[in-house]
Design a protein that fits this description.
The protein is α+β, with helices and mostly antiparallel strands. The protein is built from 21 helices and 18 strands. It starts with a helix and ends in a 7-residue tail after the last helix.
């Protein structure tokens, strides 16, 4: 018997003399009790429905599955504060397949407004039983508006940060790029990923040593030379010889870090830091510094260059033979392999190795990049190795290593660690590798190689350029391809007070009418260095002045002019 019926029975059996007030109270109590029972039943039913309701499930799914919003990544700027990499807000599209009523229809609509998507893949995603699937990351404002116009409740957006490189391809190998989640993948973006991702340092830009203006000029000149000589690649850099700062770094072919999809390995490859090359006669700079610093030879000494050198099955020739006895300045200016090889024998293989090791040329460069190549040299340093390495054959190093070593030869004899970060000090704190006296002599020889030797096409008037050409046949399959050259020039200016080193390299250049068919470093790379100096020296605060060759006059007189 129900409670309501029991109370009704008792009511009708009550004393007929009961007062109207008591009857009213009894009726009120019955009404309240009935209301409470009904409310309780409704609450139980509501809970049951909530546990199985699709609407409730959809709401919970939305709250649980959406990944957290990413934090801002710090900007990257050049030495003058110019933006190189910056984060901008963007939106990414996701869907809850459990809310999708027509996967095929919705997939078709999305492909119409987001053409890069695959309809088949979208149909598969939208038909899944998952509560969250990404549709497309980093939409443009127009794309977001078009998706919103579809009006489908299964679609939603997440606000994110998108990495933008305002200068596009410029400095792409130095900067690197990030993945879709904003993690650094290459370049300084990768090397400094933790620093750039720190939330508390998001407003503190990472200042690089690069100068966008110099970077542009170097890239422009290298691209023009690469096109003119039909080279398959090019590399170049500008370095502060007193601090080791890399002011500009160019590797070609390059890529646009804003659009990394479809970029091949050849474009990503950093020829300046990861590529290692036999750099030919530029290496003579180290051989001469070694001999002069150890007291093995002086400017007044010389070697017999009347005929080729033969050792075992190898023959060492000069590209510009003089067929006579040459003094040290003449050997350097005329780039004599014969004279340099004999000097190396006087130095000795062990000491040669020690000297090159002290310059960091036998180990990977210590630089803020993971894309760094290891030098290549003989496992067994034989007599012939000593001779060929003296003029840059049989040893391969990266351009950044060469520039670092050459800088130490002209800055007073101190080896700095190369860096992509802006330095707080403009004075050298590197370790001594040669004496200041030897450094002064090397400046004389490098200037002589430009005024009297093979580097004449690098001479930017008013800037007293010194330097050394480099031409080497490309190593292929255990041998050398005589038709494929690595042609380079290493320049420094101004030689009376060295400030900057400028390097240019062309990979497999072809001779032209203007170069009379020659494709050596002096013909194709030296002019690049000259043009870069003329365009960038004023930007770097180095102004031209009247030539004063007093410092070099004495050594220049030791050159016997050809009739």
């Amino acid at each position: 018997m129900s409670l309501a019926r029991a109370q009704s029975f008792d009511f009708h059996g009550a004393d007929e003399d009961q007062s109207p007030l008591a009857v009213a109270r009894l009726r009120l109590m019955i009404g309240v009790l009935l209301f409470m029972v009904a409310f309780g039943l409704m609450a139980v039913r509501t809970i049951e429905l909530g546990m199985t309701s699709p609407v409730a499930n959809r709401t919970a799914a939305r709250e649980i599955v959406v990944p957290p919003v990413t934090f801002a990544r710090a900007d990257i700027v050049d030495r003058n504060g110019e933006l190189l990499a910056v984060n901008l807000q963007s939106s990414s599209l996701y869907a809850n397949p459990r809310e999708v009523t027509d996967p095929i229809g919705l997939a078709k609509q999305l492909v119409d407004v987001l053409p890069g998507l695959s309809q088949a893949e979208l149909e598969q995603k939208l038909s899944s039983k998952r509560a969250f699937v990404w549709i497309k990351r980093k939409l443009t404002p127009k794309q977001k508006w078009q998706v919103n116009a579809l009006g489908d409740p299964a679609l939603n957006f997440r606000d994110e940060e998108d990495r933008l490189y305002p200068h596009g391809r410029l400095a792409s190998h130095a900067l690197g790029y990030v993945d879709v989640d904003g993690n650094g993948i290459a370049g300084v973006e990768h090397y400094f990923n933790d620093r750039l991702s720190e939330v508390e340092r998001a407003g503190e830009p990472l200042a690089l040593a690069l100068d966008v203006r110099v970077q542009y000029a170097l890239a422009d000149e290298l691209e023009a030379a690469m096109r003119a000589h039909q080279a398959i690649g090019a590399a170049g850099l500008v370095m502060d010889v007193n601090t080791g700062e890399v002011i500009a770094m160019v590797s070609m072919p390059d890529f646009d870090p804003n659009n990394i999809r479809g970029v091949g390995e050849s474009e990503r490859f950093n020829r300046v830091t990861k590529g290692v090359y036999e750099l030919g006669s530029t290496f003579k700079t180290f051989t001469f510094a070694n001999a002069l610093d150890d007291g093995i030879a002086t400017f007044e000494d010389g070697y017999d260059a009347t005929k080729p050198l033969r050792i075992s099955r190898f023959t060492i020739n000069d590209d510009h033979p003089k067929n006579r006895y040459l003094t040290l300045p003449e050997i350097f200016a005329f780039s004599s392999n014969i004279g340099t090889a004999q000097m190396a024998l006087d130095i000795g293989g062990d000491r040669q190795q020690q000297f090159l090791q002290s310059l960091g040329l036998l180990s990977p460069a210590d630089l803020e990049l993971t894309e760094v190549g290891a030098p290549m040299y003989p496992a067994t340093w034989r007599k012939v190795s000593t001779m060929t390495i003296s003029y840059g054959h049989g040893i391969a190093v990266s351009p950044v290593q060469l520039a670092t070593g050459i800088s130490s030869m002209v800055n007073g004899g101190r080896l700095n660690t190369p860096t992509l970060l802006k330095s707080r000090s403009q004075t050298s704190k590197g370790k001594p590798v040669v004496s200041p006296a030897t450094s002064r002599q090397m400046r004389q020889l490098l200037r002589l190689a430009v005024t009297k030797g093979t580097g004449g096409r690098s001479d930017a008037r008013g800037y007293r350029v010194g330097g050394k050409t480099g031409t080497a046949e490309k190593a292929v399959g255990g041998g050398y391809d005589r038709k494929a050259l690595i042609s380079s020039f290493m320049g420094v200016y101004p030689m009376d007070d060295p400030q900057y080193a400028v390097f240019a390299l062309l990979d497999e250049p072809k001779g032209t009418k203007e170069t009379f068919g020659f494709a050596s470093g002096g013909w194709v790379a030296a002019p690049v260095v000259k043009n870069v100096i003329l365009r960038t020296a004023p930007l770097l605060g180095v102004l031209p002045k009247a030539e004063d060759e007093n410092l070099y006059q004495r050594v220049a007189l030791m050159i016997e002019e050809d009739e």
